[in-house]
Amino acid sequence: MITLHAIGTFALIVGLLTLTPGLDTALILRTAALGRRRRAWGVVLGIQCGTLAWGALTSLGVTALLTASHLAYETLRWVGAAYLVWMGGRMLWATRRKASSESPQTSETGDAAATGTTRKGKAGRGAGDTLLGGWRQGVVTNLLNPKMGAFYVAVLPQFMPAGAPHPALGVLLAGVHILLAVGWACALIAFAHMVRDRLQRPSARRCLDRITGTVIAAFGIRLALGQ
To answer: Where is this region: Disordered (predicted)?
Structure first.
């Protein structure tokens, strides 16, 4: 049976991985900062479902076959890279369209437009603020990242004693990872909620989308380059 010391060591490793700024952090922060709390929690749920799937598949030996098969790994890597570049590029293109559609206005008209934009923004957030939409984005992003599979293949077997039920231990260790990740997600969403009012201006929202889109696209390019 696995020891508490082994679980603690595994928690330390995945805890450091969770705290490292990355794609998951960018997605959660951007979604929550725009006021889409339900969608943000959907992203968190989707990412953790992907983590649980990687843990279960690794304990069953499926991900070992993935990393052993060059064709399978390369296919997943290129599909994941294309998805991330597409997602980031779409965010960047949307900010360009929004910027070009705005026109200079007087102070009084600008204030009225800002009020209208805020109302429309709230309506837009309500329309796109769905748990299912966030879940789809989170789970697809996680499952199309072959580095998650490679990480679990490299780390998980070291914490599985010989003769122990591997599927159960795989789910248990993935559960430890999920608990730490959800705790970190709570902190990210709380922080995003505090700065949300500062992002009501269209220019601030465009800046956020440009930063997030660039980060996501950069992750996709790095994945394509095998880095």
So the answer is: 98-129
Tell me the residue ranges of DSSP E strands in the chain: none
**Residue range(s) defining the domain that contains residue 146:** 4-69+134-202
Closest Cα partner for 31 from 203, 216, 166?
216
pTM of the model: 0.76
- List Cα–Cα distances, 13 to 5, 19, 86, 155, 177, in angstroms: 13, 10, 31, 9, 9
Longest dimension (CA), the chain: 74
Domain count, the chain: 1
Task: Say if 225 falls within a structural domain.
Answer: no
User: Per the structure block, which two tokens stand in for 25?
Assistant: 């952090």
pLDDT tens-place values along the chain, 227 residues long: 678 888 899 999 999 988 888 888 889 988 998 888 899 999 999 999 999 999 888 888 777 776 677 777 788 888 888 988 988 888 888 877 766 665 444 334 334 433 444 444 444 445 467 899 999 999 998 988 888 888 888 888 788 777 666 778 888 999 999 999 999 999 999 998 888 777 767 777 788 888 888 888 888 888 888 75
Domain-embedded: residue 21? yes
Q: How many helices (H) and strands (E) does the chain have?
A: 10, 0
Task: Report yes or no on 79 lying in a domain.
Answer: no
Query: Is 77 part of any domain?
Result: no
User: Which of 154, 151, 159 has its CA nearest to residue 5?
Assistant: 159
